[in-house]
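Entry 14. Structure prediction run on the chain below.
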Amino acid sequence: MASFCKVTIIAFFVLANGVFLSSPTQAIRTSEQDFGLALEPSPDNGEDFIPKELSHYLGECVKKIGEECGPIFFTRIFIGTKNVIPASCCKKLLDMGEECHDTITESIISRPEFRANATLYETRAIDVWNLCSL
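Output returned:
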């Protein structure tokens, strides 16, 4: 279970940094000590998971949420951690907009490692949006 958590957190950081969006075929390797990322190009099989237009849109959404707040939302939605969401992060989420929030969530859920719990993640994403909307 700990290994799954590490992979999901790393997956978010890759998404937040645009690596996943620009080249979804890149592999991720985690370090047990510092969760560092080492990106190595994987053999290109010509299969892109996200169309270029959507990739650009997602990249803009991720920029709006920021490096500080992205991991907070990711762990709340995809790990289930009941972390406190700072008011500044809620403001960023609301400024980013519900369409971006939903699109980021659905893009992550579309990955094979997240599909099995799609309903749970969608419910948590709605809960996060509603919490920040109060």
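Helices lie at 2-16, 19-22, 52-79, 87-96, 98-109, 112-115, 118-133.
Filed with the rest of this week's runs.
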